[in-house]
Design goal:
mainly beta, 11 strands, four-stranded antiparallel beta sheet, seven-stranded mixed beta sheet
Length: 121
């Protein structure tokens, strides 16, 4: 079994910063993609940022230049540094990972429980 545990959400004023963390644990051989999605009330879930095992990244256009995704492969952890936050960034943020499991050898793709980010104006 693989688990993704997120932390770091909260309430912040517009212009402020937050850092989200997501740690993967379990029978992990390697992790391919790790990423952050968000879902605002009444809207579909959208990809915010994703990073490969080699460090290649891609971002939602509206967060480019403000958010930075990074990962620590030794800790199986991905981070999302969010700066210059705007009220429209308010959403539940979900961690996602594509994991190669050790035993049994298989691919697992799953989600964390979500963490609320609220940006007040």
């Amino acid at each position: 079994q693989v688990q993704l545990v997120e932390s770091g959400g909260g309430l912040v004023q517009a212009g402020g910063s937050l850092r989200l963390s997501c740690a993967a644990s379990g029978s992990i051989l390697s992790i391919n993609f790790m990423g952050w999605y968000r879902q605002a009330l009444g809207k579909q879930r959208e990809l915010v940022a994703r990073i490969t095992s080699g460090g290649s990244t891609n971002y939602l256009d509206s967060v480019k230049g403000r958010f930075t995704i990074s990962r620590d492969n030794a800790k199986n952890t991905v981070y999302l540094q969010m700066n210059s936050l705007k009220p429209e960034d308010t959403a539940v943020y979900y961690c996602h990972a594509d994991v190669v499991r050790r035993n049994p050898y298989s691919i697992w793709s799953g989600w964390g429980q979500g963490t609320q980010v609220t940006v007040s104006s």
